[in-house]
Design a protein that fits this description.
By secondary structure, this protein is an all-alpha fold. It contains twelve helices and no strands. The radius of gyration is 24 Å and the shape is globular.
Amino acid sequence: MEPPNRPIEIFAPFNEAFELTRKILFQPFDLTKWLVIGFAAWIATFFSGGGYNFRSFGKGDWNWRSYHYHSPISTHHMQPWMIPVILICGLVALGIGIALLWVNSRGRFVFTDCIVRNRAAIAEPWRQYKSEGDRYFAFQLVIMFCSLIVGGAIALLFVMRWQWGDALFPFPLLILLAVMLILIAILVGLVLRFMVPVMYRRRCGTMEAFHDVLALVATYPGEFILFVLFYIVLIVAAAAIGCVAACVTCCVVAIPYVGTVLLLPLVMVLYAFPLCFLRQFGDQYDVWAVVRPTEPPPPPMQDILPPA
């Protein structure tokens, strides 16, 4: 891994992402292009919250025991037919979630291609990056199931501690373990974020991209920590803008796809910023290298040598 020729910056890539968004969406403005790229952005971000399709949840009652005097819910109070229905509904929900994850994995490459090539295209990049998208989906699926297993185990330990006061799991130790898992989750999320541009640039597999990005983060920890902190600030600011937009539009931005289209410049800036940040580490990380014209091949030797 060759060191970059210049210091790694944080604010300059954001300015590049802002100017790139302005160029793609407003120079010139094309409504059809906007809607198509908005669809690519929607399928690429609806798992990460970038679509700004807000949902309203009722207030949770955390003091459940103080309002419920009946016996706890158990399988003994359930009708026999309810258990298979619950299992079937759970399997259907799991299948829908897996299908959406697959669409999201392919959509990330589609949206990246729209930004890199400055075009509104869905079908062509969907087919062109089929292999990379499917590999990324399989990798995300493994990460998701591992997260569910580990998270479920930690939640079970908290429940055991709360229910029985098990001294084998001291509460400070559980808190420390939870904090460590959160940090690991942030690291994995960061690596997953940068795996897509690496796979897009090199047309490589997931393990190669994962190891490469992880090594890059380990080599430049300070730069990536600053990136994460600044990106969190951008996410908070974007969430505030999304809330204001929801109030102004009477929650129209809560409609799937519509919210992404209305806030497409914001979504694109947040998505293009990591691409611009990553390209500072060298040509092998520059997604725009796939569209950069190559040098023409040298002329044949007989065209160079003088006649005998």
